[in-house]
Structure formats: structure tokens, C-alpha cells
Write a structure and sequence with these properties.
four-stranded mixed sheet, two-stranded antiparallel sheet
């Protein structure tokens, strides 16, 4: 999972380039049945992770739920993102993990969206 996070993070960093014209920040809560996970992120160019998603251990089709945090951390480091993940509530390991991945994907979609303003969204001129 760590290697997958690194590879996907590197691909995202390469695709975003200098991040000119992107929204940069995003916050999303994704519900999945009894679970709800919040992901807040910044395409900051700095790696920082707060991961508060305690997942009961389970193996789901070969996926070890204990590796969820490892993926998030590796992905954020490789993509140079600030990511905060928080489990608002949930019981099913499957729903918690799925909601986490879907919240991350949705937040990334929002943060990477082009605003039409051009330029890098930073007072320093670089991310």
C-alpha cells in the first residue's frame, strides 16, 4: 500500500506541475451508510498529515485495513500535500475505508479544479 501511495502521489505531483490556476484547498465529508469521513487538504507543497481514522482490523478482499494510514501518509508525502483525515463516526471497517478513499478523491478533485484565475494560489508565488 505504501508503494501504491508513493506512485500515485508522484503521478499527481507531476500532473499538477507548478499548480497554477488550481483552487488549492478543499474540505469534503463523505457518508457511506453508518460511516462518515472528513478529508481536508491543501496542495501546499509541504507534507503534513493528521490521520484520525481508527479502523478496526479486517482484511477486505486482500486489503489490510491497518494499512489505510500508511497509504495516506505515503501519498501525501509523495504529492507534497497537507492532509487531515477524520472519522466522524462509523462501525464497519469496509465503510470506513471506502468513505476515506472517496472523501480523499472528492477533496482532491475540488482542490485540483481550475479556478480561471491563473497564477499559483500563494502569496509567495510558489507551492
Amino acid at each position: 500500500m505504501e508503494d501504491c501511495g508513493i506512485a500515485i502521489g508522484q503521478a499527481l505531483a507531476e500532473a499538477l506541475g507548478d499548480k497554477a490556476g488550481v483552487r488549492r484547498f478543499a474540505s469534503v465529508v463523505v457518508p457511506l451508510d453508518e460511516a462518515a469521513v472528513e478529508v481536508v487538504l491543501d496542495l501546499a507543497g509541504r507534507n503534513f498529515v493528521i490521520h484520525e481514522v481508527p479502523v478496526p482490523y479486517e482484511e477486505i478482499n486482500g486489503f489490510d485495513t491497518g494499512l489505510l494510514e500508511d497509504f495516506i501518509r505515503a501519498f501525501a508525502q509523495a504529492a507534497e500535500l497537507t492532509v487531515h483525515t477524520h472519522l466522524r463516526y462509523g462501525r464497519s471497517p469496509h465503510h470506513i475505508c471506502e468513505a476515506t478513499f472517496k472523501a480523499l478523491a472528492n477533496a482532491l478533485g475540488d482542490a485540483c479544479a481550475l479556478t480561471g484565475r491563473g497564477g499559483v494560489p500563494s502569496t509567495k508565488g510558489t507551492l
